[in-house]
Amino acid sequence: MSDALSDAFGMSDSPSNERAAGDLRSTLTEAIDLAEWDWLKPHVARDAVIVVTPDLPLEEVGTALADNNTAVVQRWIDEQAIAKPSQENLINWDRAGNVTFNALIVAPFVLVKLRNA
Questions:
Q1: What are phi and psi for residue 111, nearest 5 degrees?
Q2: By the 8 A CB rule, do 96 and 75 touch?
Q3: Which of 29, 41, 74, 115 has fewest C-beta within 10 Å?
Q4: Which among 3, 57, 49, 1 is positioned nearest to 26, based on CA atoms?
């Protein structure tokens, strides 16, 4: 876990125990908020947005990223459960104009899940 995330969540670099993992997941769950498409555009421009499929909880992805759980994250990438937004997504969201997402920031990433699909 990065030093910034460790400090933000009061965790050390030592292996996380179940309580610490639960605390992190709770903290991330509370941090999920709504985001409008226009608000996300600067993050897309810096290639920081990750789209999460509807069946995968944002806080689960956030916990895996924060814990540097590369095996789980790679599995989700391989299964296309998480991905960068496609050009088609970007075009459709621009055309729709009023698209909203559930969003979770796990620096440097912004995890999003489409709300009004």
A1: -85, 135
A2: no
A3: 74
A4: 57
Decide: 83 and 53 in contact? Cβ < 8 Å. Answer: no
The CA distance from 18 to 56, in Å, is 20
Q: How far is residue 85's CA from residue 9's CA, in Å, rounded to a whole number?
A: 28
* pLDDT confidence of residue 18: 58
- The CA-based diameter of the chain, rounded to the nearest angstrom, is 46
Q: Which of 116, 11, 111 is CA-nearest to residue 57?
A: 111
pLDDT in tens, 18-52: 556 679 889 998 999 999 999 999 999 999 999 99
Residue ranges in the chain modelled with pLDDT below 70: 1-21, 116-117
Answer yes or no: are the C-beta atoms of 26 and 57 closer than 8 Å. no
Tell me if 54 sits within 8 A of 113, measured CB to CB. Answer: yes
